[in-house]
Amino acid sequence: MTSMMNDMLTITELARESGVTARAIRFYESKGLLTPRRAGTTRIYTYRERGRLQLILRGKRLGFSLTDIGEYLDLYDADPTRHDQILLLLDKVNNRIRELESQKADLNETLKELVSVREQALTTIQDVSVQAAHA
Q1: Residue 73: which of 101, 12, 64, 122 has the closest Cα?
Q2: Strand residues in the chain grouped as ranges (E)
Q3: How many degrees, rounded to 5, is the angle at CA 98 between CA 70 and CA 54?
Q4: Tens-place pLDDT, residues 73-108
């Protein structure tokens, strides 16, 4: 029984362990992404919930929506072979890579344009300084 109790965390302990706030954990719970056990009014988080929270945080870090993350987590519970889950993950990752590559191209174009504007501004400042020195 002691081992079982050691495998369980309160919301405060889970928040501390995962580096997020208890409020964030309750938010993920309200979205159906986490389903802790209850001991009276206290939420009890098991290894399953800890793992799900890690997947949620990783998904958020990689830019996935909570809907995408929820679909992925739902498949984990529904498919013991994880085949469908892996196919969904692969599809979502490929889409995210395409989005980021597009953003990267847009950022590169913006950076080139900003560098050009900076060079034009510096040239103008130098020209004005030279003209002022000769006047």
Answers
A1: 64
A2: 37-39, 42-44
A3: 30
A4: 988 777 778 888 889 999 999 999 999 999 999 999
